[in-house]
Amino acid sequence: MSDFLSWVSIHQSRFEDAVGRLLPQTDVLPQRLHAAMRYSVLEGGKRVRPLLAYAAGELAGAPIERVEIAAAAVELIHAYSLVHDDMPCMDDDVLRRGKPTCHIEYDEATALLVGDALQSLAFQLLSEHRLSDDPSRQLQMVRLLAAASGSRGMAGGQAIDLASVGKQLAMPELEQMHIYKTGALIRAAILLGAHCGKLDQAQLDKLDRYGKCIGLAFQVVDDVLDSEADTATLGKTAGKDKDNDKPTYVTLLGVQAAKRMAATLHQEALDTLKEFGASAQRLHDLADFIVMRKF
Amino acid sequence: MSDFLSWVSIHQSRFEDAVGRLLPQTDVLPQRLHAAMRYSVLEGGKRVRPLLAYAAGELAGAPIERVEIAAAAVELIHAYSLVHDDMPCMDDDVLRRGKPTCHIEYDEATALLVGDALQSLAFQLLSEHRLSDDPSRQLQMVRLLAAASGSRGMAGGQAIDLASVGKQLAMPELEQMHIYKTGALIRAAILLGAHCGKLDQAQLDKLDRYGKCIGLAFQVVDDVLDSEADTATLGKTAGKDKDNDKPTYVTLLGVQAAKRMAATLHQEALDTLKEFGASAQRLHDLADFIVMRKF
Fold first, then answer.
1. Pfam families in the record, alphabetically (chains A, B) (predicted)?
2. CATH code, domain carrying B105
């Protein structure tokens, strides 16, 4: 596990360097917007999606310089969604990763544009760098990220989430919401990393199955942590879901059953990796990490 | 000119059908978000960008079925920017194209997500349909639209615009703002239409020059109309720019000089079309249309 933690630390640091180079510098016009974009992306978060992309890229034998461009594209989409999500008309959060949220540090209009511009930049990265020797495959990567981000992906999941406040959702609806809201982008991170290498469709399908399990497990664990943690540990305002009367796996199943569900998804994810042998070690470790994390 | 007006009407109607098919239907989950997306895009606007794409596609001998996918992608970016622009933290507008703006008809959170999801859909369209026989060229189209939309394109122009309220901008700054804010997407519309056909780089450069002139002329005319028109004719709240103390070509140059500037840009645009002969007729007509429009 200490070997894994050093892998995490090395790749987090690599990623930080890469995304710092890929984001526009603060001396480029419009300077304030670029500063706010960097503020919203850099020095924050566990970088779960980039780590998954790196690990899938390793499994697929992909050049790491390509994988981290794809990883950055996914993380920019994730970062933009947090900026918009924190705005007063959505979750109205003032704290994120222990820092003031973008609209608090800057202003609402800037936060709106930061999110918009981060999304554009994600697609610019995926199209202006060479990520595959086959341009058709690279177009497929653009399509994958666009679908995962849009109204039948992440943004759609947020819309269902909004509509669910104060309602008692049934299990299939809650699951559909999270498959869209968190799952789609986690799956995209894994597949984009893998597409930078050479896997056949059956192997990609296996990885997608792993991603689906891990995506759901991630959300279940998030709900458990949110119900148990306090604000200081979490680095964001804790207990918001319950305050907002939002349905979660914990409110629906109770803490114990939610923990069992995470364990089952965890095992299923590990099972799908078996055929890859040692090359799947990092994805295996990440599955453990996601389910056992305490923050 | 009547031949041109019938061309406009036929293509506006074709476009409406196409984009109606390309947007998710209202019976697809999440239904309310999809209804709000359709509300924000359909039945509205002059469709200047799609018309420019159709005209450039004609010049380039491109299949119209491909051109209108590219046209839809550009128009979705334009539509999302209007939805976000109208929100209370930006221009705070309640009326757009004679209808309540998205956040008035629905709510702010939905308007935020509508804009986000329309942007994703634009890139999904550009990547999931075959728009060129050469996938590398199609990747270039994605890059072009992403760059035109982002922080060194449309979103960046809006950031400069926000920062300029209450300031007296000099001419080069005002021009840079509009090259980003309106110009980038108009140029993208023309180039994307052209990329669906077969033009060489020198020809594409000529078209880009045409686009740059037309983009600026469009904005100058917009400022003139805004300073002269009333709300009923414009279909949106008139005189907002002056109320907001925003710099415009009219406040900087006066109405007469602004009109002369539009005429000069108009002529320059027509000059760049000369080498294309009759195949540039529609782009020629559109230049006239943009400069002489009364709404």
1. polyprenyl_synt
2. 1.10.600.10
